[in-house]
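User: Run a structure prediction on this.
Assistant: Running it now.
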Amino acid sequence: MSDNRQIFVGKRNLLGNAAANAAGIWRFEDITMMRHYNFAGGAVSTGESEIIVEVFANSGSWVCPANVSSVEYLVVAGGGGGGGSDNYVGSGGGGGGAGGFRTGTGLAVTAGNTYTVTVGAGGGGASTYARGSTGSNSLLANTANTSSNVTAAGGGGGGSYNPPADTPSIVAGGDGGSGGGGGARSTTNWPGGSGNVPATSPSQGNAGGNNGAATQGGGGGAGTVGGNGVAWIPGAGGNGLRSSISGTSTAYAGGGGGGGPVNGVYSVAITHNLGFNPNVTVKASSGDVLETGIDYNSSNQLTLTMAQPFSGTAYLS
């Protein structure tokens, strides 16, 4: 998931500024501002302008300069945190969804007005049996006219393994700018979270990938949905989108990949001769339900797998 989170651009007239005569000169003013003098050379003529790119890595404010009436902008929110897991086979956390990606041109601004810039933080990764935290929103706010505010929504948190009962608010990926990937559970498929929440046009993100019965989904990205978990291979994070607002084509808002499943190292084969693939519940001697990987070798045999030594009773139905 990208962490380049907020940029916007303004233009102002530089008529008579001899320093702007040289073509294609980049000058770094400080760690947050970069100016590109984009002139063809020779004397500065009427209508030529200096392109100022201001990059905000932290929240702050921006005072619109004189002679600036509109800006091009890129606003990217914080990505969602990855889901939690534990050491049982088939458990795993879904990838966090990318923060919302909002970009456009011609946003009206007023010279002399102060605009609030909020840079959203990424969501925290979760501990065992918890969904990752949603990322924080990023915002370019016009205090004089809130209808022109640009808000990118934080990415949804990745879902988590959740025994013994499935809780949708934990296992499924969270909604957001892009959705978090579905968490892994051995016997149930759970969806990734929805992207573009709340809805914007153009869309600010995509859905997270689904958990594939023991394999977790990837978080959605600004460019594509997160990958689904398939056959013990976690889903990849969704692709981000590129912007050249800074003068260089750069990718932003990619989703996080699903966490790797716990590989089973302890297994036991059960020959049941039932002639079909039964439902399986495994209980420890204490009566606790054990989460195990289940592989159906044939209609008459299955294999139970866990990442640690186990003993108990398997109930087939």
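Residues 164 and 219 are 24 Å apart (CA to CA).
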